[in-house]
Amino acid sequence: MDISTRTGTIADLQAANKFYRYSNLGLVGALLVAVIYIFTQDKIVLQQIPGMSTNAEYSKNAMDVGAQRAIVLAVTNNLVQVNPSNASYQKLFLQAFLAPAVYTKVSAEIDAKAKLLADQRELGSYYFVFRSHQYDPKLNKHFVLGEVHTVNAAKDSAEPWVFEYPVHVDNYRLVVDDIASYKGDKAHNSSWMEGQKQ
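and the corresponding structure tokens:
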């Protein structure tokens, strides 16, 4: 056997081993940095609801008001647009955003409304026309103002309504803690409440 070939081959193997050792150490270091970054990361960017800004920001316990607005608008539309044929879909959608106690109450109301409409053979439809949104930081409530339209046979009647939602963010998810709705075009926000005290 040629001693120079044998020595050259051993040197090549040692160089290759040295390269692989350093590359493995580099990969382990990069993986360790990535794992530390993932576990310490608090702010993420998500896009969930149509109408939400593409740069909406969420953190574990907070969400920008624009993202919250898009969600409460979607909740409002789904609350209004209940009919016998889509009641189960509306309940499934709303379940993702409502607190359990609120969902239980709303689910029963949707079932009752769908049954009533089916018993009356009401073939009309309902939809919501958004007019404005207000967020009151003092009350931590969103107010969605608009018109609820009822369409049946040859007429489309509209009534002004206000929907109000106290909310909180839990584990990157907006949770609606309660729902109040009333006819009218005045939100019962903190300035309205101050006016009522006088």
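(Above: one complete record from the training split.) The CA atoms of residues 21 and 149 lie 70 Å apart.
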